[in-house]
Amino acid sequence: MSDEEWERFLRESVTGAAGAPVEPSARAREVQRRLKEGAAGQEAGQAEGWRTYSPARPRRRTGWYVTGVVAAVALLGVSLFPQQVFGLFDGDDGDGQSEAPLAAESERPRDAPGGEPAQRPTWDEPFRGSPAARWAEGASGITVPAAKATGWMDAAQVERALEQSRRFLVDAGLDRGVLRGERPTKAIGLLNPHQDDVQDYLRTSLSSKTPTSTNDPLLLFSRFRPQQAQLVGDVVKTRGRLSYREGKRGALEVTADVTFVYPVAPAGDRGRDADIVRTIVRREVVMSWDDPDKVSTEPGTMSLVSYTLDLTNGGCSAPTGYFTPPFDTADKQHADAEHRLDPYDRSKSVDSDATRAGGKSCATATRS
Questions:
Q1: CB count in 10 Å sphere of residue 354
Q2: What is the pLDDT of residues 57-66, one digit of tens each?
């Protein structure tokens, strides 16, 4: 056998000789069976075979219809009951008290905050049961608006004056040393040293052992007598804002309206059953950043136009120069029972009974 015949013999041994019968595969046999059954069925008037065409049946788009109905109902609910609807997403813990922090206050609210479940404050949760539980801490609760050129100041100067105005509030109402009764040196450093009436007030209010209603240091500064009261924890809650406009002689006039909530307990009492009281102070301070070409002033200082105060749970008896929280029932009776105030309601101005140039309004809190 020649080499060529031997190679053809080997090749045909593997692939099969041309024209040799080939055993159909199992899939081929199955296809042939179904084709025969289909042909037989059609001849007998049966249904179409598995490979014949069937028109698609129209489908009802129930999914989109239901989605549209749900969306319409949701929009109707939001329009009719916005507070209830959004309340579902603000972190309500199940007892009616939301844990979600409030957005910063950019304008005067229309209404007082909603009622909270009556809960006694504790050493670990001194703001429990009050709207202040959702307020920001310290300086972060005082909103500063965007700056734009006003009066004699350009935008950059206005921005700096607004920050300094907030700094005054922080140094006067949040500084730990001042809260313990120390002299408010940093806050005083921001006041115009040439404003004689304010400088007289500072000298008499901070040196007198028997302050009066007009030279009470509490009109501007938050102070507790260390021998009587102590702060509970390291947090003071605040809520408020600054606003500004052009004042007299082209000055930048900044108005601060801020509420401070101080949780305090009797000095030396650190037990779980301590009598914790929240002293709530709302101050409205109007500050004037004067044009040095028109008013005698010093760089980085401002003049005071007015300062008023609403106070609850801070003592309503004769001024002492310190807040005197009512840790017992007898002290609570000193408040003016006819003058009642919701200290968390920021929808109204600071009490109109307080005088424009240095007044304090003391009231019985409807809630604290």
A1: 21
A2: 444 444 555 5
